Amino acid sequence: MGSRALPRGARLLIRALDPIWHPSDNFGPRRLGARPDLVVLHYTAMKSAEAARDWLCNPEAGVSAHYVLGYDGTCWQLVTEEMRAWHAGLGAWGSVEEVNSRSIGIEIANTGDEPFPEAQMAALEVLLSGILARWSIPPERVIGHACMAPGRKIDPGPLFDWPRLVSKGLAVSAEPASPGDFLEDAHRFGYRTGPEQQPALLKSFRDRFRPGAEGPLCDADRALMAGLAARWPAA
Questions:
Q1: Catalytic residue among 60, 97, 107, 175
Q2: 85 to each of 28, 51, 81, 142, 207, how far by Cα in Å?
């Protein structure tokens, strides 16, 4: 775990979660002395948390994550936070192009077409609180896999309860501003996509900030993206 001193409240939350150590061999050092300043949320797209956990520990898989969260809130830690887990793949956020070296990855057990249970979300709140405290990561740096790789990835999907994390200060919401250039504002907020990827970008954005919205790009999308860019420009 990170070596920074923690506020008393954060320390108590971490003890309450008590992750189960289940080490994966699929990890390495963070490149160029990087330290984590992002958290990437995933869903497993598998039928059980245990199956996902075991796959992420299988040397043949070539993938891993720092944590896996089960439906009942059970938390397994597979890789220490100081090390580079192999969860993000190709993609970028803001100026960060090698996301694995700059992030902590959390795999949440979910098939992608079901709600996230209360026990699981409660455990995620505790886990995230500790991570953000340990590494001084601000809530705008908590993103989904789809945020950093629109089109290639869709998790954690439109059923994920982002507003709950926002209410706890663990993620950010979109407030409308004067509508601007959607793609330009998306780049300021952190998305890294070209004009040809705008449909994928729009889906990723709506799944997180306008779940259920359909149809072509509209002023409601532009206004929310402008608000994100103005308030939370990515480093």
A1: 107
A2: 7, 18, 8, 16, 26
β-pairing verdict for 84-85 and 27-28:
antiparallel
CA distance 104 to 84: 8
Q: How far is CA 116 from CA 126, 164, 185, in A?
A: 15, 11, 30
pLDDT at 17: 84
Q: In what order do the strands lie in the sheet with 67-69?
A: 20-21, 75-77, 67-69, 103-108, 38-43, 142-144
Note if 107 is an active site residue. yes
C-alpha span between 81 and 184 (Å, rounded): 33
Confidence check: pLDDT of 203 > 70: yes
- Distance CA(127)–CA(116), nearest Å, equals 15
With a CB cutoff of 8 Å and minimum separation 6, the contacts of 184 are: 229
Chain centroid to CA 197: how far? 20
Distance CA 46, CA 229 (A): 34
Rounded to two decimals, what is the model's pTM?
A: 0.93
Taking only the tens place, the pLDDT of each residue in 155-180 is 999 999 999 999 999 999 999 999 99
Report DSSP state, residue 11.
H
